[in-house]
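Quick one:
INPUT:
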């Protein structure tokens, strides 16, 4: 019983840290990116994962996908035609995703992130 009480707060803290990481990173990066144009304000998004077992590959994969989606959405609309805007979006996305993964602090999730970022991605 005491282990359940001990685990729940740490999972809750991890969940809040992931939300904060996605939000703070997106706000910090997007403020610099969008500060020039003064357009839309950066968004923060909540990423739920308390029901996932992050020690299992499937749980880590589900959370990783959620964090990818949240990072993409938090960084705004992707414009593949404008190279400068695309590069700014990519920096926002990469930084937001990295900080969110690190904030969760789960070994399976980190291994998945490292594997994904080690692979070359095609533009397009």
């Amino acid at each position: 019983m005491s282990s359940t009480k001990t685990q729940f707060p740490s999972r809750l803290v991890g969940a809040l840290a992931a939300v904060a990481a996605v939000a703070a990173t997106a706000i910090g990066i997007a403020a610099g990116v969008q500060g020039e144009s003064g357009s839309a304000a950066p968004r923060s998004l909540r990423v739920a994962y308390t029901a996932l077992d992050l020690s299992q590959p499937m749980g880590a994969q589900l959370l990783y996908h959620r964090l990818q989606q949240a990072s993409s959405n938090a960084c705004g609309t992707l414009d593949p035609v404008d190279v400068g805007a695309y590069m700014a979006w990519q920096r926002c996305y990469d930084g937001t995703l990295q900080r969110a993964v690190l904030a969760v602090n789960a070994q399976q999730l980190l291994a998945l992130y490292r594997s994904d970022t080690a692979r070359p991605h095609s533009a397009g």
